[in-house]
Amino acid sequence: MPPDDEAAGNQDGIMNARLTLRAGFARLLLALGVTELGAREEALPALDFGVLAPREVRVFVPPGGVQRDTPVLLALDGQMMPAWHLAETVARLAAKGEITAPLVVAIPAGEDRVEEYGMAGAADYAGRGKQAAAFQRFVLGAVLPAVRARYGVAAEPARTGVMGASMGGLAAFDLAWGHPEALGFAGIFSGSLWWRGDNSSVGAQQASRLALRLARETRAVPRLRLWFEAGTKDETDDRDGNGVIDAIQDTTELMDALAARGFRRGRETRYVEVAGGEHNEATWARALPDFLRWALPPR
Questions:
Q1: How far apart are CA 292 and CA 46, in angstroms?
Q2: Which end of the chain offers a freer environment for a tag, N or C, measured as fewer CB atoms within 10 Å?
Q3: Nearest-CA neighbor of 100 among 133, 123, 73?
Q4: For residue range 132-161, what is the model confidence (pLDDT) as tens digits?
Q5: Buried/exposed code over 124-161 (b: 16+ C-beta within 10 A; e: otherwise)
Q6: Tens digit of each residue's pLDDT (9 = 90 or more) over 236-275
Q7: What are the extents of the domains in the chain?
Q8: CATH says 8-295 is which class?
């Protein structure tokens, strides 16, 4: 959803409808045997969803198979991975020796996406994000253990990461930041880093951005590698009128806060600004190879 929007719930509903249509088309292609994925695809069975709505989690096994040290990449909004050309891109880059091919775990969004993809520690000013903690428990307590048991991959944070876009980007950041014992890297594409606790004024909006506050105030800074992307046409909103759209300002100010906490630019953090990039899957697919090369370098 476009960042910094009073109608975030409505925008999320529109995005959910778009995701549902595209995911349905992708499933149809797969049912007909038409695939661009370059990987074996299978469902992850017998998951405990807790209070969340059940959904089918899909796993893309890289063409070379899985070893104990194969990286694991959790993809939020997993129903949209065909639109990102994720598995196809992974296969292409791995064949060129540019990355280590991961086991991709595509976790679809639920119908209450804006509730699941908030931040686990605090709701936003409108009380949204109430299921974020339950979603994180599902990922860490059900999905990852099932993946490790089924495929025999090691439980090593440095080789386990998460990626997402928009609200999914916010959720990926929050999940990795809060659980460095399980996750070692994250990709935040057009992250909804505007997510805030107070909407009463521009000053309050700026001061209460929850991801920024988390980065500044967490006592024990986690050991993570964090990759960020924003497009110059991600949105048009500019809360403080400084001539920089909020999507870019929110991202770069978060990165400044991370640098102040000891994250080294280019090592623990990376920022990619896509010229002309919009808030959509086409832009995120363009930026995807850079993330994969940075997060999953060849052995």
A1: 29
A2: C
A3: 73
A4: 999 999 999 999 999 999 999 999 999 999
A5: beeebbebbbebbebbbebbbebbbeebebeeebebbb
A6: 999 999 999 999 999 999 999 999 999 999 999 999 999 9
A7: 8-295
A8: alpha beta
